[in-house]
Amino acid sequence: MSKFSCKCGYVMNLSEGWSSYELTMLPEGIMNHIMEELDDNNMDSDKFLEITNNHELAVYRCPSCNRLWLESGVNSNHFISYIIENNE
Ligand SMILES: [Zn+2]
Q1: If you measure from the C-alpha of residue 50 to the centroid of ligand 1, how many angstroms do you get, rounded to a whole number?
Q2: Can you give the chain as a three-state secondary structure string?
Q3: CA triplet 28, 29, 31: central angle to 5 degrees?
């Protein structure tokens, strides 16, 4: 069972299927390419995966502290954390 521990102590279970704290970040150019394919070529899931392959970054959003953990791009197991600077 894959788990990811946040600095705040919250443990995210990553193997329960699609959780609300598991996100994917894609570059704007890739999103535009996807929209063009949807409009022009009735894109299917295989084409979607072909376009996004190696362009997406995993993001985990801690449901306890809202800290974001962004895949560094160095390798799929290395994440850098970002936290809200001014919580109003
Ligand atoms: Zn947290």
Answers
A1: 33
A2: CCEEECCCCCEEECCCCCCCCEEEECCHHHHHHHHHHHHHHCCCHHHHHHHHCCCCEEEEECCCCCCEEEECCCCCCCEEEECCCCCC
A3: 65
Using the mean position of ligand 1's atoms as its centre, give its distance from the Cα of residue 68 in Å: 8
For residues 21 and 47, the answer to whether their CB atoms sit within 8 Å is no
| Alpha carbon of 15 to ligand 1 centroid (Å) | 18
**CA 81 – ligand 1 centroid, Å:** 10
Calculate how far, in angstroms, residue 32's C-alpha sits from the geometric centre of ligand 1.
Answer: 32
With a threshold of 0.85, does the pTM exceed it? no
31-57 pLDDT, tens digit each: 998 888 888 888 888 988 888 888 889
Spacing, Cα 23 to ligand 1 middle (Å): 15
